[in-house]
Inverse folding.
């Protein structure tokens, strides 16, 4: 099993500490093909996402000392065929635990002693938690708009947290400069493809729980952490004959930061350069998505619908959900707002799966 450069095809062992291709600077893909998915091969005695390890690039038993019981989150029928996958029911209250558990298990298996990472908050929190579990030193960079509660959680897990002036993209640049200068292991959810091997379990669970894949699936889209995991799992299901066609995927961005929405409108093969305006949906406020070209290829290949959510809809939608018992963060509320906008634009849909990605305790204001 190797890393393969997405640009030039150069291969390196997954034991490498290099964050990207040493030849051309392209991002890694993982040369791994999962076995044909079969529920009979799921380890039902393991109550975490690692019950699916038969279909994941597990290198040894490091995961056993890393797992915090992530995954296995419930699905609730919220209303009128709207299904909420409650992925904020995780150790750090966000879906990012799926990817972080997988990535840090990999880091542990190859002997990594310290990592750095940049994040809008949730991924940094997750990586910090699993590094704490693994005994790996962790340093996280977050932008100044990050919720203080997320910063507090990162530090509580024992990680150093650096708050960077400027946008989420500015924060990433500062962190990557440190990686380039000091040679730290970049445990990043955008660069490292092991992260997506964790987030793909979202779809595995949906199939095990429902016995089917819903016809419509909402996916928040910033850097593509969940998006790429969902695509990976659904393509595996197409190959295995579990589904006959790709469900209708609906990608969500904020109107204040919508490089993919604008790219599709302009029929561009690369994300449009946008001015990033302040948005409550901090989890998808990515002006320069590093896997943008790859993500757009999937958007066009599978005719994925794009929805940009107006800022003024986020807080009222969050309040609407909270009034019905669902306390989620702003980015998650934007996903439900996108569902409502989609129905207004294209007509009511019979069934739709929406991820509840982050808990309400992690962000203010109400």
């Amino acid at each position: 099993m190797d890393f393969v450069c997405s640009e030039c095809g150069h291969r390196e062992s997954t034991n490498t500490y290099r964050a990207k291709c040493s030849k051309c600077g392209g991002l890694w893909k993982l040369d791994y093909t999962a076995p044909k998915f079969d529920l009979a091969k799921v380890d039902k005695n393991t109550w975490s996402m690692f019950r699916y390890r038969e279909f994941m690039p597990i290198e040894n038993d490091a995961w056993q000392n890393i797992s915090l019981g992530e995954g296995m989150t419930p699905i609730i029928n919220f209303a009128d065929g709207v299904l909420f996958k409650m992925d904020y029911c995780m150790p750090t209250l966000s879906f990012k635990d799926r990817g972080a558990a997988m990535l840090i298990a990999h880091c542990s298996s190859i002997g990594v002693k310290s990592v750095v990472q940049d994040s809008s908050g949730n991924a940094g929190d997750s990586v910090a938690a699993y590094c704490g579990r693994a005994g790996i030193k962790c340093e996280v960079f977050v932008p100044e708009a990050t919720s203080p509660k997320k910063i507090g959680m990162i530090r509580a897990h024992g990680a150093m947290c650096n708050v960077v002036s400027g946008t989420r993209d500015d924060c990433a640049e500062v962190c990557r400069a440190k990686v380039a200068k000091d040679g730290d292991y970049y445990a990043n959810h955008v660069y490292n493809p092991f992260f997506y091997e964790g987030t793909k379990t979202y779809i595995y669970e949906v199939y095990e729980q429902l016995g089917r894949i819903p016809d419509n699936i909402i996916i928040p889209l910033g850097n593509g952490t969940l998006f790429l995991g969902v695509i990976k799992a659904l393509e595996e299901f197409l190959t295995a004959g579990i589904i006959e066609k790709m469900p209708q995927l609906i990608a969500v961005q904020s109107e204040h930061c919508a490089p993919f929405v604008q790219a599709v409108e302009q029929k561009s093969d690369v994300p449009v350069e946008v001015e990033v305006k302040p948005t409550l949906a901090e989890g998808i406020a990515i002006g320069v998505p590093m896997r943008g070209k790859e993500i757009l290829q999937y958007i066009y290949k599978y005719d994925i619908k794009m929805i940009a959510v107006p800022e003024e809809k986020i807080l009222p939608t969050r309040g609407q959900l909270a009034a019905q018992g669902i306390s989620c963060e702003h980015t998650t509320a934007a996903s439900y707002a996108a569902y409502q906008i989609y129905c207004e634009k294209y007509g009511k849909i019979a069934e739709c799966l929406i991820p509840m990605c982050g808990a309400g305790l992690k962000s203010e204001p109400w």
Summary: Residues 75-91+194-362 form a domain with the Rossmann fold fold (CATH 3.40.50.1100). The mean pLDDT is 97.
